[in-house]
Each structure stands twice: as C-alpha cells, then as structure tokens.
C-alpha cells in the first residue's frame, strides 16, 4: 500500500480526528484552536484519565507544527493547576509505538495522589521493566532524560515519553516494537496505584452513559481552569 493510500485509510478509520463520524463526541471536555481535551473512552487508571489530542491527524508529537505542540502544553498547565487544587499530582505520557502506521497520536494525562507523584520519577527510572525492555542488546539508552524531546528524538522514530507534571521526564526510543508492550507505562502506574490487572491489560470501551457522566464531572472541575474561554475564534 502506498503512502497516500495508507494516509487515506488512516483518516477514514480514525476515531480521533475532530471531524470524524467515529469521534466519541460525548467524551469531549473542551476544544482549543488546534487541539482538544477529552476523557478516555475506556476505564482508564482513574475517572479523570484524560487525553490531549491534535484536531488534525498526526502520528507523533515530533510531527506536530510548533503552534499545535505549544497549545498541547497549555492543556498540561491547566490540568496541573486543576489537579494541584485538588491536592493531586499527575503524569503525561505518549506511546508512539508504530509511527509508520500513521495512527492518530494522543497524550495520556493521569492524576496521581501527591505522595505517588513525588516518587514517580524515581520509580520509573529504577523500574525493572524499563531496564529489561527489548532485551539486552539495543543501540539506544534505556532512558533519555528529556530537555527538549523534539530535538533529542529523531523524527520518524518510535518512542515512549513520560513527563511528571510540568517537569520534563524520560523517553525511551523503541527499536523493536514487537518487544515493547503497549501497556508498558500503564502497567507501572497501575502497580504504583495498587490497581488490578483489568484496569490496564485491555482497554475495553465504556458504555455511552458512563462516558457522558465522566465527561460531565470533569467539565465541572475544569471550568475554573479552562483557558479556551479566553481565545478568539474565527467566525
């Protein structure tokens, strides 16, 4: 299949493009100029497990235009403030495991209790899972300490990243995607949070009413931190 045909198929099947008929509109919390915030349509690790998503189809953060990338960080700042007001911390994760397949990227936003947020960076760095992933013989470091991911990770590479609140975190360049489990980060977080395996092993989609209720609850909490109310949109 050629690149153009692959792109057309990706767009046709995509449930995350904002114009898609497959989009779970009941999950949308707020919409920016080029991105949007929504609740996860699966059970997730918390009732406030959220996603930051570019409106247009894009396979990874490395491929985003600068203005889109900057806008995604606005959501992060708002969410950090919202959860801080509730006495919670958070992490932001991206799993770009198969960039060549051109799947729509998203950032997972997971709130943590404050005491877990304090130890999360150390927990991930010392994790047996990251040190053993993809076997012993790999060309890249197991963990890269992030300063500017868009300069540190080559465009087109597969990777995983995790940031802790607004602090830069870690990245792992995925060399063998078959050997790197898509549930890698959620499994580690679930272990920290003492959650059962069914919360991370399979992402079973929620019922419509459950999605709607979660989104309504998050909208109420997000109201005081909603930066999108200040933007001017074209008529």
UniProtKB/TrEMBL annotation:
Annotated family: Belongs to the CWF19 family.
Annotated source species: Pristionchus pacificus
Pfam families: CwfJ_C_1 (PF04677), CwfJ_C_2 (PF04676)
Gene name for this UniProt entry: WBGene00282662
Cited InterPro entries: Cwf19-like, Cwf19-like_C_dom-1, Cwf19-like_C_dom-2
Protein known as: Uncharacterized protein
């Amino acid at each position: 299949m050629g690149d153009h045909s692959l792109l057309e198929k990706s767009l046709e099947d995509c449930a995350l493009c904002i114009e898609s008929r497959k989009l779970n509109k009941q999950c949308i919390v707020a919409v920016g100029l080029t991105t949007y915030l929504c609740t996860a349509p699966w059970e997730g690790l918390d009732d406030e497990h959220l996603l930051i998503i570019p409106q247009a189809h894009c396979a990874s953060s490395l491929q985003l235009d600068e203005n889109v990338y900057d806008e995604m960080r606005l959501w992060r700042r708002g969410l950090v403030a919202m959860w801080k007001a509730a006495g919670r911390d958070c992490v932001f994760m991206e799993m770009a495991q198969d960039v060549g397949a051109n799947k729509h990227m998203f950032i997972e936003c997971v709130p943590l209790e404050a005491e877990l947020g304090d130890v999360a960076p150390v927990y991930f760095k010392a994790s047996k899972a990251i040190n053993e992933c993809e076997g012993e013989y790999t060309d890249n470091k197991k963990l890269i300490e992030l300063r500017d991911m868009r300069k540190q990770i080559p465009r087109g590479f597969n990777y995983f990243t995790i940031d802790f609140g607004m602090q830069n975190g870690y990245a792992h360049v995925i060399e063998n995607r078959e050997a790197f489990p898509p549930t890698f980060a959620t499994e580690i977080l679930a272990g920290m949070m003492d959650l059962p395996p069914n919360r991370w092993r399979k992402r079973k989609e929620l019922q419509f009413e459950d999605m709607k209720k979660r989104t309504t609850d998050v909208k109420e909490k997000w109201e005081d931190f909603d930066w999108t109310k200040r933007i001017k949109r074209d008529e």
